[in-house]
Amino acid sequence: MTATLRTDPGGFRIRWSDTTAQAYRAAGHWRDETLTAVARRAVQADPGRVLLIEGDKRLTRGEAWGMASRLASFFIERGLKPGDVVSVQLPNWVEAAVIGLAARMAGLIINPIPPIYRESELGYILKDCGAKMIFTPHVFRRHDYRAMVEGLRAELPALKDVVTVRGGEPGDLRYEDALAAPEAADADLPSVDSSAVMMVMYTSGTTGRAKGVLHTHYTYDYRVRTLGAACGLGADDVVFMPSPVTHITGAIWCIDMPWVWGSSSVLIDVWAAEEGIQCIETNRCTVSGGATPFLRQLLDTAEGRPEAIASLRLFFCGGTTVSPDLIREASEKHPHGLFFRAYGSTEVPSVTLGISGRAETELGAETDGKIDPTNQVKIVDPETDAELPEGAEGEILARGPEQFAGYLSTADNDGAFDDEGYFRMGDLGRRVHGDYLVITGRKKDIIIRSGENISPKEVEDLLSTHPAVTEVAIVAMPSATTGEKGCAFIIPAQGQTIDLAEIRRFLDEAGLARQKFPEHVVLVDDLPRVPSGKVRKDVLRTRARELAEGAPA
C-alpha cells in the first residue's frame, strides 16, 4: 500500500497508489462524484430547505446553489481553469460556504486562510500555493484586510484578483460584482476528476513555515460522509460550529455537511460564550464541537441555566489538550448529551470518532475516542519504528481513506510517512480497550492555542533577530483559558533586557499574527541542552508547567 508521486489532473504532485485506490473504490470508501453532484440532488429534492444560518440570515439550498453557480460562472469569466487556486480569508460568514461550493463546480482548488493571519503568514501562503484569486473582508475586527492584501501584491505575481466581501472601496472588485454573473449552465462547467486535489490547507509544523496539506475530492468526501454517519447526522439536526471555516473541522461541518446530510449549519463570526449560548438556544442546535476553550466557556456561561443548551445531543472536543474532568463535568451537568474527546489533524482529520452512547461516557473522558474502523493505526517505538503492544506508549501512525495526498512541497513528505504509507501524526499515545486511543504527549514541537497550531520555530526565528535576544526557546505552557500558550525562555544580550511588551511590539511590527505571540517570558542565563548542544525542550516544558501551576493562567 505504499504510494508514489504522480501528477493529478490539475498539475499537483500527489502521493498515489493504484492498488489502494482500487481497494477504496471497491469498498465504497471513495466515490466518483463531487460535492457539486450531491448539492444538485439536494436542491432538486428541497430547494427551500435552510442550509446556513448566520445571525438573522437564512440561506436556503436554492439560494446557495444559485449564488455558487453565478460565482462559478464568474471564475470562468476571469480566466480561472481547473487546478487554479482560489484563496479565502474570511470569518465564519455564509459567503465562505458559497465560495466553497462554487470552487468545486469550477474544478478549482480552495485555499482557506485563517483570518488571524497577517502579512507574514498571508504573503507566504499566497505565494507558496500560487493563488490566482483571493476573497477577503474589507475590514473585520478593525483590521483592514483589503489594504493588507494590496500591500503584498507586488510580491505575488500569480495573484490576479482580490475580491472584497462585505465592503470595499470605489473601483474594487466586490463579492456583489461576482454574483452579477449569469448562472453557469451545466455545459459550461468542467468535468471534475474525484482524484484531483480540491483543497490546499496550511498547517504549522516543526520547520517554522506552514506546510500545504493537499486533500482530493476522494479523501475529503470520505471523511464528510463517514463522520456524519458516526454522529447520526440527519435532516433534523442543526449544527453549531464555532470552529473557523478556514480550519479542517469548521470547513467539513459548515460547508459540506449540510449538503451531504441535510442538516443546517449555524455560523458565528466572533466567538463569545454568551452569543454562542444564544445561537444554540435560538436555533435549537443539536450538534457542536470545538477546542477546549469553547466547551469550558459554554459550561461556565450555561451554569444555572442548563435549558439553554438542552437541545445539544452531541459535543466533540479536540484540537488541544482536553481534560478528562472537563468531559466528566459536561456529561454530569448535561446528561441528555454525549460529550467526548476526539483526535485528528489536518492531514488525517478524524483518526478517532469519539463514542457512540452514554454507556461509553467514561471512555469519552479518559480516552481520545474510538478509532474509525476504516483507519489503520499503529503505535511504534519512536526510535526504532517497531510496533508496540496495546497499552505501551509510542508514536502514533495512521493511514486510511481520509489520509491526505501529501504536502504541496513534495520535500515535506520526506520522513512524514513510514515504508507502509502510514502518516506520522507527530503525537505520542497508547492504544487501550482494543480500539481506543489515549494521547499522552507530542513528538512534534508545536503549541496548540485554542485549537490553533503554532510553530515555535517561526516565532523563535523572528525573535532571534531582536538586538536584545541572544537565544530564545519557546514551549507550550498550560492555560485554563486557551489550553496552551507560548512561554519564551530568553537568554538576553549582555547588558540588555526584554519584556513581553517589547516582544509584542517587535512581533506586531514584523506582521505576525498576535495569537502566536508568547504570553509568558522567562529570562535565563542559559538553556538546558543535550551534549550536542540541542535545547532540551522537554525540560523547559516541565518548567513552564510548574510555573503555570503557581501562576495565573
By CATH, the topology of the domain at 60-192 is Rossmann fold
Report the C-alpha radius of gyration, rounded.
Answer: 23 Å
Question: Which ranges are low-confidence, i.e. pLDDT below 50, for 5 or more consecutive residues?
Answer: none
Silhouette? globular
Mean pLDDT across residues: 92
Structural class: alpha/beta
CATH domain class name of the domain at 60-192: Alpha Beta
Give keywords.
single chain, 553 residues, alpha/beta, Rossmann fold, 7-stranded mixed sheet, 5-stranded parallel sheet, 30% helix
Task: Provide structural commentary.
The chain has about 550 residues and is an alpha/beta fold. Among the domains are: about 60-190, Rossmann fold (3-Layer(aba) Sandwich), CATH 3.40.50; about 445-550, ANL, C-terminal domain (GMP Synthetase, Chain A, domain 3). It contains 16 helices and 27 strands. Strands 4-3-15-14-16-17-18 form a 7-stranded mixed β-sheet, sandwiched between helices. Strands 6-5-7-10-11 form a 5-stranded parallel β-sheet, sandwiched between helices. A 4-stranded antiparallel β-sheet has the order 19-20-21-22, with no helix packed on it.
